[in-house]
What we know:
CATH architecture of the largest domain: 3-Layer(aba) Sandwich
Number of domains: 3
Shape: elongated
Number of helices: 12
Structural class: alpha/beta
Oligomer: single chain
Number of strands: 5
Amino acid sequence: MRRDSIFYKLFQQSPTLLFELLTNPPSNADEYRFDSVAVKEPKFEIDGVFLPPLNQNPGVVYFCEVQFQKDEQLYERVFAESYLYFYRNRARFSNLQIVIIYPSRSLEQTDISPYLSQLNSPQVHRIYLDELGDIRSLPLWVALMVLTTLEEESSTEEARYLLKRSQQEVPQAENRAIIDLLTTIMVYKFEGKSQREVEKMLGITLQQTRVYREIKEEGREVEARSLILRLLTRKVGELPQEVRQKVESLSLEQLENLGEALLDFTSMADLDAWLKSI
């Protein structure tokens, strides 16, 4: 299960989620922007960085690492990447904070003796998801993080509970985002199950998810494009390749507008004029 990508999707949807895990979050947590950054010479790619608002300069930068596999040199890498990026961008930031998220303490690096001073400082935060408490008592976005750590037999019941809770507690737009992420988590957990089985497990239909909506939208575009091309051929004759390519590149909304306009076409010139007008 690719939990790191799921967690970064969670942070993209709700950047304030990181600060819900901390005892002393910044007062302007809702103004932070989640991003990934690169550090050259040597080349580092840091996936989880929370950048302070541009109008707060210098501000505090937060580095986040999600670690679901044992890595005996994790702290070497995290501290090297974070401090090097901080050094390269010292004028932008007044301070830095580092957050490492583990499913449990068992996956923490074994030899931490070289980093005791950093790990015990107020600038470094180690979060163990299995120690956050009952999943049903946690904020919804935090609960989604914990859901990734549950065993299969308990994850289905908790996922259904979180779906029901999201419908009651959050606005419709945010609820859709939660459904999408929760569905993604469960699909990763139960890779061997069919779509129908996942639907039944969650008590929803995948028609409610972003993936299904995108597929449906793509299907409508394909059908509309095919129909419009056939109608145009009947109306104005065989389309030149260049014109055909222009029609094929139109969005669904543009195709629908063309479908209405072509009723009045009598020649290729009408089509050319319409394409130039958009």
